[in-house]
Amino acid sequence: MNLVASMNAPDNKFPLFLKISIVFVLLSLAIVVPSGILVVGQEKELVHTEMIQRYDLLVRHLAASAEMPLLSGDTLALKVLVKGMDTETGILYAFINDQNDKVLAHTGSIAAEGVLQLLARQGKSTAVRRVSPELKDPKANGFLDISAPVVYHNKTVGGFHLGLSQDVMDQEMKGVTSHLIRNYFLYGIPGLVLCLIVLFFWSNRAAGQVLSLVSGMNELNNNNLGIQIKKMGHGLFGELASAFNRLSLSLEQSCEKEKTIVLSSSCRAPFLQPADPPASLLPTQITRNQIAVLFAGVKGFREYAENRAPEDVIVDLNEYFALAARIAGEHDGQVDKFIGDAVSCVFQSTPLKPDHTRRAVEAAVALQAALADQSQDGNDIMNKIGIGISSGVALSGSVEALPDKVHTFIGESFKTAYSLNVLAGPGEIIMSKDVFEAVEHLVTVEPVPPREMMDKTEAWENFRLKGLLPKEDDETSSL
What we know:
This protein is α+β, with helices and mostly antiparallel strands. It has two domains: 1-257, Beta-Lactamase (2-Layer Sandwich), CATH 3.30.450; 265-468, Alpha-Beta Plaits (2-Layer Sandwich), CATH 3.30.70.1230. Helix content is 47%, strand content 23%. It is built from eleven helices and 16 strands. Strands 8, 9, 10, 11, 12, 13, 14, 15 and 16 form a nine-stranded mixed β-sheet that branches. Strands 3-2-6-5-4 form a five-stranded antiparallel β-sheet, with helices on both faces. The protein has a two-stranded parallel ribbon with strand order 1-7. Helix 1 runs antiparallel to helix 5 (166-221).
Protein backbone atom coordinates (compact mmCIF):
# COMPACT_ATOMS: atom_id res chain seq x y z
CA MET A 1 0.00 0.00 0.00
CA ASN A 2 1.28 3.43 -0.92
CA LEU A 3 1.48 6.19 1.66
CA VAL A 4 0.57 9.66 0.50
CA ALA A 5 2.59 12.39 2.27
CA SER A 6 0.65 15.20 3.86
CA MET A 7 2.73 17.81 2.00
CA ASN A 8 3.13 16.21 -1.40
CA ALA A 9 1.91 19.01 -3.66
CA PRO A 10 4.05 22.14 -3.09
CA ASP A 11 2.95 23.70 -6.36
CA ASN A 12 -0.69 23.68 -5.25
CA LYS A 13 -0.20 24.27 -1.54
CA PHE A 14 0.89 27.90 -1.68
CA PRO A 15 -2.15 29.14 -3.64
CA LEU A 16 -4.45 27.29 -1.23
CA PHE A 17 -2.56 28.68 1.76
CA LEU A 18 -2.69 32.15 0.22
CA LYS A 19 -6.44 31.89 -0.29
CA ILE A 20 -7.01 30.77 3.30
CA SER A 21 -4.81 33.57 4.64
CA ILE A 22 -6.52 36.25 2.55
CA VAL A 23 -9.96 35.07 3.66
CA PHE A 24 -9.01 35.17 7.32
CA VAL A 25 -7.30 38.56 7.02
CA LEU A 26 -10.37 40.02 5.35
CA LEU A 27 -12.59 38.51 8.02
CA SER A 28 -10.34 39.92 10.76
CA LEU A 29 -10.41 43.39 9.20
CA ALA A 30 -14.17 43.17 8.70
CA ILE A 31 -14.53 42.54 12.44
CA VAL A 32 -11.75 44.69 13.90
CA VAL A 33 -12.23 47.92 11.89
CA PRO A 34 -15.99 48.36 12.44
CA SER A 35 -15.64 47.37 16.10
CA GLY A 36 -12.84 49.92 16.54
CA ILE A 37 -14.94 52.67 14.96
CA LEU A 38 -17.88 51.71 17.17
CA VAL A 39 -15.74 51.76 20.32
CA VAL A 40 -14.26 55.18 19.47
CA GLY A 41 -17.72 56.61 18.77
CA GLN A 42 -19.13 55.25 22.01
CA GLU A 43 -16.16 56.55 24.00
CA LYS A 44 -16.53 60.03 22.48
CA GLU A 45 -20.22 60.04 23.34
CA LEU A 46 -19.41 58.97 26.88
CA VAL A 47 -16.81 61.73 27.34
CA HIS A 48 -19.21 64.33 25.90
CA THR A 49 -21.92 63.24 28.32
CA GLU A 50 -19.52 63.36 31.27
CA MET A 51 -18.44 66.90 30.35
CA ILE A 52 -22.04 68.11 30.16
CA GLN A 53 -22.85 66.45 33.47
CA ARG A 54 -19.81 68.01 35.11
CA TYR A 55 -20.71 71.56 34.02
CA ASP A 56 -24.37 71.02 34.76
CA LEU A 57 -23.46 70.04 38.32
CA LEU A 58 -21.28 73.15 38.56
CA VAL A 59 -24.10 75.44 37.35
CA ARG A 60 -26.57 73.92 39.83
CA HIS A 61 -24.10 74.49 42.65
CA LEU A 62 -23.59 78.15 41.64
CA ALA A 63 -27.35 78.67 41.28
CA ALA A 64 -27.83 77.38 44.82
CA SER A 65 -25.04 79.72 46.07
CA ALA A 66 -26.72 82.71 44.36
CA GLU A 67 -30.04 82.27 46.17
CA MET A 68 -29.45 84.50 49.19
CA PRO A 69 -27.45 87.25 47.40
CA LEU A 70 -30.20 87.43 44.76
CA LEU A 71 -32.97 87.81 47.36
CA SER A 72 -31.03 90.42 49.37
CA GLY A 73 -29.98 92.37 46.29
CA ASP A 74 -26.28 91.84 47.07
CA THR A 75 -24.97 92.63 43.59
CA LEU A 76 -21.33 92.54 44.72
CA ALA A 77 -21.66 88.97 45.96
CA LEU A 78 -23.30 87.98 42.68
CA LYS A 79 -20.48 89.52 40.63
CA VAL A 80 -17.86 87.74 42.76
CA LEU A 81 -19.71 84.47 42.20
CA VAL A 82 -19.82 85.02 38.43
CA LYS A 83 -16.23 86.24 38.15
CA GLY A 84 -15.02 82.93 39.49
CA MET A 85 -15.90 81.38 36.09
CA ASP A 86 -13.19 83.38 34.29
CA THR A 87 -10.58 80.82 35.35
CA GLU A 88 -12.43 77.88 33.73
CA THR A 89 -11.23 76.87 30.26
CA GLY A 90 -13.81 76.94 27.51
CA ILE A 91 -16.33 79.20 29.35
CA LEU A 92 -17.60 81.95 27.02
CA TYR A 93 -19.87 83.67 29.49
CA ALA A 94 -21.58 83.39 32.86
CA PHE A 95 -24.37 85.55 34.17
CA ILE A 96 -27.18 85.72 36.74
CA ASN A 97 -30.60 87.13 35.89
CA ASP A 98 -33.70 87.69 37.97
CA GLN A 99 -37.18 86.41 37.24
CA ASN A 100 -37.76 89.29 34.83
CA ASP A 101 -34.64 88.33 32.79
CA LYS A 102 -32.76 91.38 34.10
CA VAL A 103 -29.02 90.64 34.13
CA LEU A 104 -27.63 91.26 37.66
CA ALA A 105 -24.06 89.98 37.17
CA HIS A 106 -22.15 89.05 34.02
CA THR A 107 -18.72 87.98 32.80
CA GLY A 108 -17.35 86.78 29.48
CA SER A 109 -17.12 87.88 25.88
CA ILE A 110 -20.76 87.36 24.89
CA ALA A 111 -23.46 89.79 25.94
CA ALA A 112 -25.97 88.23 28.32
CA GLU A 113 -28.91 90.11 26.79
CA GLY A 114 -28.15 88.66 23.38
CA VAL A 115 -28.05 85.15 24.81
CA LEU A 116 -31.43 85.66 26.53
CA GLN A 117 -32.94 86.90 23.27
CA LEU A 118 -31.63 83.85 21.36
CA LEU A 119 -32.96 81.50 24.01
CA ALA A 120 -36.33 83.24 23.91
CA ARG A 121 -36.53 82.83 20.12
CA GLN A 122 -35.78 79.10 20.41
CA GLY A 123 -38.87 78.70 22.53
CA LYS A 124 -37.41 75.84 24.60
CA SER A 125 -36.67 75.60 28.26
CA THR A 126 -34.10 72.89 28.98
CA ALA A 127 -31.02 72.78 31.17
CA VAL A 128 -28.68 72.25 28.18
CA ARG A 129 -29.35 73.93 24.85
CA ARG A 130 -27.18 74.13 21.78
CA VAL A 131 -27.06 77.71 20.48
CA SER A 132 -25.88 78.96 17.09
CA PRO A 133 -26.18 82.71 17.61
CA GLU A 134 -26.16 85.26 14.83
CA LEU A 135 -23.63 87.43 16.67
CA LYS A 136 -20.58 89.05 15.17
CA ASP A 137 -18.27 87.78 17.88
CA PRO A 138 -16.47 84.75 16.34
CA LYS A 139 -16.11 83.20 19.78
CA ALA A 140 -19.87 82.95 19.99
CA ASN A 141 -20.23 80.68 16.95
CA GLY A 142 -21.47 77.42 18.37
CA PHE A 143 -21.78 76.97 22.13
CA LEU A 144 -23.85 75.20 24.72
CA ASP A 145 -25.94 77.17 27.17
CA ILE A 146 -26.13 75.34 30.49
CA SER A 147 -28.60 76.88 32.92
CA ALA A 148 -30.13 76.20 36.32
CA PRO A 149 -32.94 78.07 38.11
CA VAL A 150 -32.42 79.92 41.36
CA VAL A 151 -35.25 78.66 43.58
CA TYR A 152 -36.46 79.94 46.91
CA HIS A 153 -39.26 78.03 48.69
CA ASN A 154 -40.19 76.24 45.45
CA LYS A 155 -40.44 79.55 43.62
CA THR A 156 -38.08 80.52 40.81
CA VAL A 157 -36.55 83.90 41.57
CA GLY A 158 -33.88 83.93 38.85
CA GLY A 159 -31.42 81.86 36.89
CA PHE A 160 -27.74 81.11 36.36
CA HIS A 161 -26.43 80.68 32.79
CA LEU A 162 -23.06 79.40 31.64
CA GLY A 163 -21.86 79.26 28.04
CA LEU A 164 -19.58 76.36 27.09
CA SER A 165 -17.48 76.68 23.90
CA GLN A 166 -18.20 73.97 21.32
CA ASP A 167 -14.69 74.37 19.89
CA VAL A 168 -13.14 73.53 23.24
CA MET A 169 -15.36 70.47 23.52
CA ASP A 170 -14.42 69.36 20.01
CA GLN A 171 -10.73 69.69 20.85
CA GLU A 172 -11.22 67.57 23.93
CA MET A 173 -13.05 65.00 21.81
CA LYS A 174 -10.13 64.95 19.38
CA GLY A 175 -7.77 64.37 22.27
CA VAL A 176 -9.89 61.43 23.45
CA THR A 177 -10.01 60.04 19.91
CA SER A 178 -6.24 60.32 19.53
CA HIS A 179 -5.75 58.57 22.85
CA LEU A 180 -8.03 55.72 21.85
CA ILE A 181 -6.40 55.31 18.44
CA ARG A 182 -2.96 55.33 20.04
CA ASN A 183 -4.01 52.61 22.48
CA TYR A 184 -5.63 50.68 19.65
CA PHE A 185 -2.40 50.61 17.68
CA LEU A 186 -0.38 49.97 20.83
CA TYR A 187 -2.37 46.91 21.88
CA GLY A 188 -4.60 45.95 18.94
CA ILE A 189 -1.98 45.75 16.19
CA PRO A 190 0.33 43.39 18.15
CA GLY A 191 -2.71 41.21 18.87
CA LEU A 192 -3.64 41.17 15.20
CA VAL A 193 -0.06 40.28 14.24
CA LEU A 194 -0.11 37.43 16.76
CA CYS A 195 -3.35 36.17 15.27
CA LEU A 196 -1.84 36.30 11.78
CA ILE A 197 1.17 34.29 12.96
CA VAL A 198 -1.14 31.65 14.42
CA LEU A 199 -3.15 31.76 11.19
CA PHE A 200 0.02 31.23 9.17
CA PHE A 201 0.89 27.98 10.90
CA TRP A 202 -2.71 26.77 11.06
CA SER A 203 -3.48 27.48 7.41
CA ASN A 204 -0.16 25.93 6.38
CA ARG A 205 -1.09 22.73 8.20
CA ALA A 206 -4.71 22.80 7.03
CA ALA A 207 -3.67 23.34 3.41
CA GLY A 208 -1.34 20.34 3.59
CA GLN A 209 -4.08 18.15 5.04
CA VAL A 210 -6.62 19.22 2.44
CA LEU A 211 -4.18 18.59 -0.40
CA SER A 212 -3.33 15.20 1.08
CA LEU A 213 -7.01 14.22 0.99
CA VAL A 214 -7.37 15.56 -2.56
CA SER A 215 -4.29 13.63 -3.68
CA GLY A 216 -5.66 10.46 -2.12
CA MET A 217 -8.98 10.89 -3.94
CA ASN A 218 -7.10 11.38 -7.22
CA GLU A 219 -5.21 8.14 -6.58
CA LEU A 220 -8.50 6.29 -6.01
CA ASN A 221 -9.87 7.84 -9.20
CA ASN A 222 -6.83 6.40 -11.00
CA ASN A 223 -7.72 2.92 -9.65
CA ASN A 224 -4.83 2.92 -7.18
CA LEU A 225 -6.92 1.09 -4.57
CA GLY A 226 -5.49 0.61 -1.09
CA ILE A 227 -3.83 4.04 -1.07
CA GLN A 228 -3.30 5.34 2.48
CA ILE A 229 -2.74 8.90 3.70
CA LYS A 230 -0.81 9.91 6.79
CA LYS A 231 -2.59 10.27 10.10
CA MET A 232 -3.64 13.83 10.88
CA GLY A 233 -4.16 13.58 14.62
CA HIS A 234 -7.52 14.28 16.19
CA GLY A 235 -10.30 16.55 15.02
CA LEU A 236 -12.16 16.82 11.74
CA PHE A 237 -9.17 16.20 9.46
CA GLY A 238 -8.14 13.19 11.52
CA GLU A 239 -11.62 11.67 11.19
CA LEU A 240 -11.65 12.37 7.44
CA ALA A 241 -8.24 10.71 7.01
CA SER A 242 -9.32 7.62 8.99
CA ALA A 243 -12.55 7.34 7.00
CA PHE A 244 -10.62 7.68 3.73
CA ASN A 245 -8.14 4.96 4.73
CA ARG A 246 -10.95 2.58 5.70
CA LEU A 247 -12.74 3.21 2.41
CA SER A 248 -9.56 2.64 0.41
CA LEU A 249 -8.82 -0.68 2.16
CA SER A 250 -12.43 -1.80 1.75
CA LEU A 251 -12.32 -1.09 -1.99
CA GLU A 252 -9.03 -2.96 -2.34
CA GLN A 253 -10.33 -6.00 -0.47
CA SER A 254 -13.55 -6.03 -2.47
CA CYS A 255 -11.72 -5.85 -5.76
CA GLU A 256 -9.51 -8.78 -4.79
CA LYS A 257 -12.63 -10.97 -4.75
CA GLU A 258 -13.42 -10.09 -8.35
CA LYS A 259 -11.17 -11.97 -10.74
CA THR A 260 -11.06 -11.45 -14.45
CA ILE A 261 -10.35 -14.33 -16.76
CA VAL A 262 -9.28 -13.52 -20.27
CA LEU A 263 -9.91 -16.34 -22.65
CA SER A 264 -8.02 -16.24 -25.90
CA SER A 265 -7.60 -18.72 -28.70
CA SER A 266 -4.14 -19.72 -27.44
CA CYS A 267 -5.52 -21.32 -24.23
CA ARG A 268 -7.94 -23.67 -25.96
CA ALA A 269 -7.12 -27.23 -26.88
CA PRO A 270 -6.56 -27.44 -30.64
CA PHE A 271 -8.97 -30.31 -31.02
CA LEU A 272 -11.80 -28.36 -29.33
CA GLN A 273 -11.93 -25.48 -31.76
CA PRO A 274 -12.67 -25.35 -35.43
CA ALA A 275 -9.96 -24.39 -37.83
CA ASP A 276 -9.67 -20.63 -38.27
CA PRO A 277 -12.85 -19.54 -36.41
CA PRO A 278 -14.15 -16.08 -37.20
CA ALA A 279 -12.66 -13.48 -34.88
CA SER A 280 -16.10 -12.05 -34.13
CA LEU A 281 -17.17 -15.37 -32.55
CA LEU A 282 -14.28 -15.59 -30.06
CA PRO A 283 -15.21 -14.60 -26.51
CA THR A 284 -13.14 -11.61 -25.45
CA GLN A 285 -13.61 -11.37 -21.70
CA ILE A 286 -15.48 -13.30 -19.03
CA THR A 287 -15.87 -12.00 -15.47
CA ARG A 288 -16.21 -14.13 -12.36
CA ASN A 289 -18.18 -12.41 -9.60
CA GLN A 290 -20.32 -13.01 -6.52
CA ILE A 291 -24.04 -12.64 -7.32
CA ALA A 292 -27.48 -13.22 -5.82
CA VAL A 293 -30.25 -14.58 -8.09
CA LEU A 294 -33.95 -13.80 -7.66
CA PHE A 295 -36.17 -16.19 -9.64
CA ALA A 296 -39.88 -15.29 -9.73
CA GLY A 297 -42.48 -17.37 -11.52
CA VAL A 298 -46.27 -17.72 -11.77
CA LYS A 299 -47.70 -20.66 -9.80
CA GLY A 300 -50.42 -22.57 -11.72
CA PHE A 301 -49.83 -20.65 -14.93
CA ARG A 302 -51.27 -23.36 -17.23
CA GLU A 303 -54.64 -23.43 -15.48
CA TYR A 304 -54.66 -19.63 -15.47
CA ALA A 305 -53.86 -19.33 -19.19
CA GLU A 306 -56.34 -21.99 -20.34
CA ASN A 307 -59.32 -19.92 -19.24
CA ARG A 308 -58.26 -16.59 -20.80
CA ALA A 309 -57.71 -15.11 -24.20
CA PRO A 310 -54.05 -15.05 -25.32
CA GLU A 311 -54.14 -11.26 -25.62
CA ASP A 312 -55.22 -10.88 -21.98
CA VAL A 313 -52.51 -13.27 -20.82
CA ILE A 314 -49.82 -11.28 -22.65
CA VAL A 315 -51.09 -8.00 -21.15
CA ASP A 316 -51.02 -9.47 -17.63
CA LEU A 317 -47.54 -10.91 -18.13
CA ASN A 318 -46.20 -7.63 -19.46
CA GLU A 319 -47.54 -5.78 -16.42
CA TYR A 320 -45.94 -8.36 -14.11
CA PHE A 321 -42.58 -8.29 -15.97
CA ALA A 322 -42.45 -4.47 -15.99
CA LEU A 323 -43.08 -4.38 -12.23
CA ALA A 324 -40.34 -6.96 -11.55
CA ALA A 325 -37.82 -5.10 -13.76
CA ARG A 326 -38.56 -1.77 -12.06
CA ILE A 327 -38.15 -3.09 -8.53
CA ALA A 328 -34.94 -4.93 -9.44
CA GLY A 329 -33.51 -1.69 -10.81
CA GLU A 330 -34.51 0.21 -7.67
CA HIS A 331 -32.35 -2.21 -5.66
CA ASP A 332 -29.35 -1.99 -8.02
CA GLY A 333 -30.16 -5.24 -9.75
CA GLN A 334 -30.91 -6.17 -13.36
CA VAL A 335 -33.12 -8.55 -15.27
CA ASP A 336 -31.11 -11.42 -16.74
CA LYS A 337 -33.81 -13.32 -18.65
CA PHE A 338 -37.54 -13.63 -19.18
CA ILE A 339 -38.36 -17.36 -19.40
CA GLY A 340 -42.00 -18.05 -20.18
CA ASP A 341 -43.94 -16.88 -17.14
CA ALA A 342 -40.78 -16.42 -15.03
CA VAL A 343 -38.13 -13.74 -14.66
CA SER A 344 -34.61 -14.06 -13.25
CA CYS A 345 -32.91 -11.00 -11.73
CA VAL A 346 -29.23 -10.68 -10.83
CA PHE A 347 -27.72 -8.59 -8.04
CA GLN A 348 -23.94 -8.27 -8.38
CA SER A 349 -21.35 -7.60 -5.68
CA THR A 350 -19.27 -4.53 -6.55
CA PRO A 351 -16.55 -2.64 -4.62
CA LEU A 352 -18.99 0.13 -3.77
CA LYS A 353 -22.01 -2.16 -3.22
CA PRO A 354 -20.94 -5.47 -1.69
CA ASP A 355 -24.39 -6.08 -0.12
CA HIS A 356 -25.78 -8.02 -3.10
CA THR A 357 -27.55 -10.67 -0.97
CA ARG A 358 -29.38 -8.12 1.15
CA ARG A 359 -30.46 -6.17 -1.92
CA ALA A 360 -31.90 -9.34 -3.47
CA VAL A 361 -33.91 -10.16 -0.32
CA GLU A 362 -35.19 -6.58 0.02
CA ALA A 363 -36.15 -6.57 -3.68
CA ALA A 364 -38.09 -9.81 -3.24
CA VAL A 365 -40.02 -8.37 -0.28
CA ALA A 366 -40.73 -5.17 -2.21
CA LEU A 367 -41.88 -7.17 -5.26
CA GLN A 368 -44.34 -9.27 -3.28
CA ALA A 369 -45.73 -6.12 -1.62
CA ALA A 370 -46.14 -4.41 -5.00
CA LEU A 371 -47.75 -7.54 -6.49
CA ALA A 372 -50.26 -7.62 -3.65
CA ASP A 373 -51.21 -4.00 -4.36
CA GLN A 374 -51.49 -4.53 -8.12
CA SER A 375 -53.63 -7.67 -7.74
CA GLN A 376 -56.49 -5.46 -6.56
CA ASP A 377 -56.72 -3.99 -10.09
CA GLY A 378 -57.94 -7.30 -11.57
CA ASN A 379 -54.64 -8.85 -12.69
CA ASP A 380 -54.86 -12.39 -11.24
CA ILE A 381 -51.23 -13.15 -12.07
CA MET A 382 -50.06 -10.71 -9.42
CA ASN A 383 -51.16 -12.90 -6.48
CA LYS A 384 -49.72 -16.12 -7.90
CA ILE A 385 -45.99 -15.31 -7.84
CA GLY A 386 -43.52 -17.45 -5.91
CA ILE A 387 -39.90 -16.35 -5.48
CA GLY A 388 -36.66 -18.27 -4.90
CA ILE A 389 -33.35 -16.64 -3.94
CA SER A 390 -29.85 -18.16 -4.06
CA SER A 391 -26.30 -16.81 -4.17
CA GLY A 392 -22.90 -17.92 -5.41
CA VAL A 393 -20.21 -17.32 -8.01
CA ALA A 394 -21.22 -16.82 -11.63
CA LEU A 395 -19.49 -16.10 -14.92
CA SER A 396 -20.73 -13.17 -16.96
CA GLY A 397 -19.97 -12.06 -20.47
CA SER A 398 -21.38 -11.37 -23.92
CA VAL A 399 -22.70 -14.09 -26.20
CA GLU A 400 -21.08 -12.77 -29.35
CA ALA A 401 -22.55 -15.43 -31.58
CA LEU A 402 -25.83 -13.51 -31.33
CA PRO A 403 -26.28 -10.42 -33.50
CA ASP A 404 -26.83 -8.07 -30.53
CA LYS A 405 -24.10 -9.68 -28.34
CA VAL A 406 -26.39 -10.29 -25.38
CA HIS A 407 -24.70 -10.07 -21.95
CA THR A 408 -25.62 -13.05 -19.79
CA PHE A 409 -24.72 -14.84 -16.54
CA ILE A 410 -23.86 -18.53 -16.13
CA GLY A 411 -23.76 -20.37 -12.82
CA GLU A 412 -25.23 -23.00 -10.53
CA SER A 413 -27.07 -20.28 -8.61
CA PHE A 414 -29.67 -19.96 -11.38
CA LYS A 415 -30.60 -23.64 -11.17
CA THR A 416 -30.80 -23.41 -7.38
CA ALA A 417 -32.98 -20.29 -7.51
CA TYR A 418 -35.32 -22.03 -9.96
CA SER A 419 -35.61 -25.05 -7.64
CA LEU A 420 -36.43 -22.77 -4.71
CA ASN A 421 -39.07 -21.07 -6.86
CA VAL A 422 -40.64 -24.50 -7.43
CA LEU A 423 -40.83 -24.97 -3.65
CA ALA A 424 -42.38 -21.52 -3.06
CA GLY A 425 -46.12 -21.13 -3.04
CA PRO A 426 -48.00 -18.06 -4.27
CA GLY A 427 -46.83 -14.96 -2.37
CA GLU A 428 -43.93 -16.86 -0.70
CA ILE A 429 -40.19 -16.21 -0.71
CA ILE A 430 -37.81 -19.14 -0.13
CA MET A 431 -34.06 -18.62 0.25
CA SER A 432 -31.13 -20.99 0.31
CA LYS A 433 -29.03 -21.61 3.40
CA ASP A 434 -26.13 -19.41 2.28
CA VAL A 435 -28.53 -16.52 1.62
CA PHE A 436 -30.05 -16.92 5.08
CA GLU A 437 -26.62 -16.99 6.74
CA ALA A 438 -25.77 -13.68 5.04
CA VAL A 439 -28.96 -11.89 6.16
CA GLU A 440 -29.98 -13.76 9.31
CA HIS A 441 -29.59 -10.60 11.42
CA LEU A 442 -32.08 -8.81 9.15
CA VAL A 443 -34.89 -11.34 8.66
CA THR A 444 -37.29 -13.69 10.39
CA VAL A 445 -37.70 -17.11 8.75
CA GLU A 446 -39.02 -20.62 9.22
CA PRO A 447 -37.21 -23.71 7.96
CA VAL A 448 -38.53 -25.59 4.95
CA PRO A 449 -38.58 -29.40 5.28
CA PRO A 450 -35.68 -31.07 3.40
CA ARG A 451 -36.41 -32.16 -0.14
CA GLU A 452 -34.46 -33.62 -3.03
CA MET A 453 -33.31 -30.74 -5.24
CA MET A 454 -33.40 -31.36 -9.01
CA ASP A 455 -30.85 -34.04 -9.85
CA LYS A 456 -28.88 -33.68 -6.60
CA THR A 457 -28.91 -36.60 -4.17
CA GLU A 458 -28.42 -34.65 -0.92
CA ALA A 459 -31.17 -32.71 0.80
CA TRP A 460 -30.70 -28.95 1.07
CA GLU A 461 -31.65 -26.72 3.97
CA ASN A 462 -33.92 -23.88 2.88
CA PHE A 463 -35.86 -21.16 4.66
CA ARG A 464 -39.19 -19.43 4.07
CA LEU A 465 -39.01 -15.67 4.64
CA LYS A 466 -41.52 -14.36 7.17
CA GLY A 467 -40.48 -10.72 7.19
CA LEU A 468 -37.70 -8.13 7.58
CA LEU A 469 -36.56 -6.94 10.98
CA PRO A 470 -36.66 -3.17 11.67
CA LYS A 471 -33.47 -1.47 10.55
CA GLU A 472 -31.17 -0.22 13.30
CA ASP A 473 -29.56 3.25 13.27
CA ASP A 474 -26.05 1.85 13.42
CA GLU A 475 -24.27 0.78 10.32
CA THR A 476 -25.01 -2.83 9.31
CA SER A 477 -22.24 -5.13 8.24
CA SER A 478 -21.63 -5.86 4.58
CA LEU A 479 -23.47 -8.88 3.21
